[in-house]
């Protein structure tokens, strides 16, 4: 699906007019891919890399354009079951055109960030800026989910919540790799900013972008370290909860067995003391009840 955008008074708005300086292709079909390869001389392998979630971020200088493959977070849905995934995206910067290739349809140019966009180079920088903010938003969600799962683990008797935390930890590893790969690409773009003809404002934006990406990486690293370092403690909490449950069940079982033993002794089909006494039943029940109280009192005294 091809979407076209035009820059009007510093804003990026959809358009059907030609020529459109910004193209966004979402899951392009074979016809659209051939158009990019044949018309714009986009390398076919690089184009396919933009749609491959396992592709590594990289920067390539072609004769007529700059080819950028960067990582971005996948939109999270309930079906992902606490697994935050990473996708690849492609940005092909020409002298007067920016072509963006995505594997999913997401909003790109909305918000205050894109209100002062004068060039296609500035649009590409802000697009990566938006990706960094997207990572930060997902990290906040991961932190919230982690806190929620920790509260449930304090009372959990099963491994379901622990497995969800392991999945979040796995997601953070993916995010760390993706953010670090983007940082390497951003450094290459900064080094080649003069060669690419970036304005002074664009170069300053690249400096800010590198700082924001580094802070995003540090935040993801902190969350990952916290999850991994406290995972053993959370496992111990679940095991302790199970031990406490078994202790309560044992108390109940033994508490029932003690009076049962007394009652069973007076139920044997042999001559027994008090068997002809008119209060024999209540005496036996009293002995059973006293035995149970005595056992519970002894358990409490030993502080078991």
Provide tags for this entry:
about 300 residues; alpha+beta; Beta Polymerase, domain 2; 2 domains; seven-stranded mixed β-sheet; 8 helices; about 55% helix; rod-shaped
> How large is the count of helical segments?
8
What series of H and E elements makes up the topology? Answer: EEEHHEEEEHHHHHH
- Distance linking N and C termini: 68 Å
Helix content percent band: 55-70%
Number of strands: 7
- CATH-defined superfamily of the largest domain: CorA soluble domain-like
**Mean pLDDT across residues:** 81
Report the CATH C-level class of the largest domain. Answer: Alpha Beta
What would you call the structural class? alpha+beta
Q: And the CATH topology of the largest domain?
A: Beta Polymerase, domain 2
Write down the overall geometry. rod-shaped
Q: What CATH architecture label of the largest domain applies? A: 2-Layer Sandwich
Task: Tell me the layout of helices and strands.
Layout: E1 2-8, E2 11-14, E3 22-26, H1 30-39, H2 44-49, E4 58-61, E5 66-73, E6 86-93, E7 98-102, H3 120-153, H4 160-191, H5 193-196, H6 200-229, H7 231-265, H8 280-301
Parallel strand pairs: 3-7
Antiparallel strand pairs: 1-2, 1-3, 4-5, 5-6, 6-7
Plain-language structure description:
With 304 residues, this protein is of the alpha+beta class. The chain folds into 2 domains: 2-229, Beta Polymerase, domain 2; 242-301, no CATH class. Helix content is 57%, strand content 13%. It has 8 helices and 7 strands; from the N terminus they run βββααββββαααααα. It has a 7-stranded mixed beta sheet. Strand 6 and strand 7 (98-102) form a beta hairpin. Helix 3 (120-153) packs antiparallel against helix 4 and helix 4 (160-191) runs antiparallel to helix 6. The relative contact order is 0.09. The model has no long low-confidence stretch (mean pLDDT 81).
């Amino acid at each position: 699906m091809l979407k076209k955008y035009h820059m009007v008074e510093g804003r990026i708005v959809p358009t059907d007019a030609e020529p459109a300086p910004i193209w966004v292709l979402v899951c392009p079909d074979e016809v659209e891919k051939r158009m990019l390869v044949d018309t714009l001389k986009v390398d076919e392998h690089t184009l396919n890399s933009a749609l491959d979630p396992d592709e590594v971020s990289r920067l390539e200088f072609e004769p007529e354009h700059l080819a950028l493959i960067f990582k971005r977070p996948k939109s999270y849905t309930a079906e992902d079951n606490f697994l935050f995934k990473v996708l690849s995206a492609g940005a092909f910067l020409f002298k007067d055109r920016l072509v963006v290739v995505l594997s999913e349809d997401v909003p790109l140019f909305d918000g205050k960030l894109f209100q002062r966009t004068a060039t296609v180079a500035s649009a590409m920088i802000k697009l990566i800026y938006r990706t960094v903010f997207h990572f930060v938003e997902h990290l906040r969600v991961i932190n919230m989910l982690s806190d929620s799962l920790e509260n449930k683990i304090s009372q959990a008797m099963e491994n379901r919540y622990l497995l969800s935390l392991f999945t979040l930890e796995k997601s953070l590893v993916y995010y760390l790799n993706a953010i670090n790969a983007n940082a390497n690409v951003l450094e290459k773009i900064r080094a080649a900013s003069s060669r690419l003809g970036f304005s002074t404002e664009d170069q300053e934006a690249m400096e800010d972008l590198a700082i924001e990406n580094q802070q995003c990486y540090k935040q993801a690293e902190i969350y990952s370290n916290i999850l991994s370092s406290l995972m053993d403690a959370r496992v111990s909490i679940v095991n302790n909860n199970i031990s406490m449950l078994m202790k309560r069940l044992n108390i109940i079982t033994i508490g029932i067995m003690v009076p049962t033993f007394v009652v069973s002794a007076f139920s044997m089909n042999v001559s027994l003391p008090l068997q002809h006494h008119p209060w024999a039943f209540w005496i036996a029940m009293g002995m059973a009840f006293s035995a149970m109280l005595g056992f519970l009192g002894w358990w409490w005294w030993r502080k078991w």
